[in-house]
Write a structure and sequence with these properties.
Blueprint (H helix, E strand, L loop, with lengths): L1 H7 L4 H11 L4 H14 L3 H12 L6 H8 L1
Length: 71
């Protein structure tokens, strides 16, 4: 879970809006449970690998910067 949180800090701006929408939903507990299940099952492995590859090549933006742009 720590690695996912670390990756979220560097999420691409186009995904920051989607994350904001999820955070504002009333179903956060269910979302958290689903993320945990998907993570444990390996369902997120390809996603995490893609995010890490994007980060290594400089194609990511710090979440704080992306959120400032959306204000």
């Amino acid at each position: 879970m720590e690695s996912i949180l670390g990756l979220l800090e560097n999420i691409q701006p186009k995904h920051a809006d989607e994350l904001d929408q999820l955070e504002s939903s009333n179903d956060l507990d269910a979302w958290d449970e689903q993320i945990a299940k998907d993570s444990e099952s390996g369902k997120l492995d390809d996603f995490v690998e893609g995010v890490l590859a994007s980060h290594k090549t400089g194609k990511t933006t710090k979440l704080s910067q992306a959120l400032k742009r959306s204000e």
